[in-house]
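Sat 14:20. Reprocessing the chain from the morning session after the first attempt stalled halfway. Input below, unchanged.
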Amino acid sequence: MKETLIIGSIVLVLVCFLLGLPIVSCTYAHYNEHTAKITVKKAERVQKRHSSQYLVFTDTGDVYCIDDSIWRWTFDASDRYGKIESGQTYECTVVGWRWRFFSSYPNLLTVDPVEDSAP
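Finished this time. Tokens:
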């Protein structure tokens, strides 16, 4: 009886987690969109074991990633990363939060150069 209760509790927790994951993912991808004007200090591709990630470091110490997003139907992360130049300023559409515990970064969905307005 006790083992059945423990197994049932574990299954319930796993089911709730699996059902809640898409909701959290969708919320992450849709409800924190904002624009940011950033000046790039450096951009680099960080190699992980079986994947890599594009990171952008700004002059203010913020760190952003450039990733594809199935929720936003953007599949051009390499193209966006290719536009980035150190020392340049960009107007960006950003979504997401910085979660240090999960090594998660806000995602740059658009990267548009800002024209220098100096005379």
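The beta strands are 34-47, 52-58, 63-66, 89-95, 107-113.
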